[in-house]
Amino acid sequence: MDWYYSENGQQNGPVSEAQFEELVHSGRITDSTLVWTAGMAGWQAYGALGGSGGENEHCVSCGKLFACSELIRYETSWVCASCKPAFFQRVKEGLAGSDRMVWREKRAVVMGKNGLLPDRCAKCNNPANGWRLVRNLRWHSPVVYFCLLLNLLIYVIVALIVSQRARVEVGLCDKHRSQRLLAISISWGMFLLAVVMFVCAARYEHGAFVIVGIVLLLAAFIYGMWKGRSIYAKRIDKERVWMKGFCKAYLDELPEWTSGK
Q: What are the residues whose beta carbons fall under 8 Å from the beta carbon of 111, sequence distance 6 or more?
């Protein structure tokens, strides 16, 4: 039996049954991927078919879709063979469970505060080979920004009190890890040059140094945020964190989030 599937808006195929299953297991074909084979009335989402091997579930660790016959069930979680050793090590450490699940919601990743992101680069979806960037995220309601109309100090105090926090570990490949370090280095370089300009302005009493210093300071901040930031919090509540900054290929391999979970 030959299969056809849609990827990036283009039709692909035909592929054999074995090749199709490999695409499913690799995560290229997800529940939302449109597929078609002889005998079907029209194109349908793969998740609506139940898969060729029966009922399917996502691995709680890597997020990829597998037939249930290829997964191990632990409480409410499903684990693939590749993730099994690391998952049950976390069970021994008391860290595994349904709150470890990771989902997608449009362009955001949704994760329990005890969740573990897949071992893939957040920027290109290539293997991260175990390397993790630790981020301590903060988020508060946009309403808190109105405190700036009163006083900066009041805003800082209120934000510290009401902010929700989450500690996450994000996978990055060698390429994007190097790019991030370079961006941070360039940003700090511009900041130090700005300090030098302000010192020169004080010494030589020339306004041009002040202007250049301010430009460099703004450039350092903007460039650092643009190139150096990996992910950021869209929302955090008592149980979960919503994050943005992940590439589309990464998001496509995660199961869809529903508020009823």
A: 101, 102, 103, 117, 168, 240, 241, 243
pLDDT digits (tens, 9 = 90+) for 33-54: 888 887 676 788 887 765 444 4
The residue ranking higher by pLDDT, 66 or 54, is 66
Asked if 56 and 50 touch (Cβ cutoff 8 Å), the reply is: yes
100 contacts 90 by C-beta, under 8 angstroms: yes
- In this prediction the pTM is 0.57
The pLDDT tens digits of the residues spanning 213-232 come to 999 999 998 888 888 778 89
